[in-house]
């Protein structure tokens, strides 16, 4: 995508990241991320935002929490829940930082 807004670019990055780690078990089924690839994604892509990304038990717990339909794989919708779960506390931290900047001015 050559042109686009920052938000469009960010969404594209998130979708590309899902495609990078997900696969299709057969051509008619949507792409999903296996547990093994999900653990790889956590440690390679989210090691600054999430703690314990190298901890297998913590990663498996996260997969279990996200895996709503309990098929042992992470669908795009389940992946999106993770993104929302990360974005929410980060938005809170950014607002706190903005608030402290205002207070010190
Ligand atoms: Ca699932």
Annotation keywords:
105 residues, mainly alpha, Recoverin, domain 1, 2 strands, globular
Which bin fits the share of residues in helices? 55-70%
Distance between the termini: 40 Å
DSSP helix count? 4
- The order of strands across the largest sheet is 1-2
Structural class: mainly alpha
Bin the strand percentage: under 5%
Please tell me the CATH architecture by its name: Orthogonal Bundle
Instruction: Give the overall shape, derived from the CA principal axes.
Output: globular
Alpha carbon gyration radius: 16 Å
CATH superfamily: EF-hand
Instruction: Give the beta-strand count.
Output: 2
Give the CATH topology. Recoverin, domain 1
Order of helices and strands: HEHHEH
Mean pLDDT: 91
| Ligands present | calcium ion
CATH top level label = Mainly Alpha
Which segments are poorly predicted (pLDDT under 50) over 5 or more consecutive residues?
none
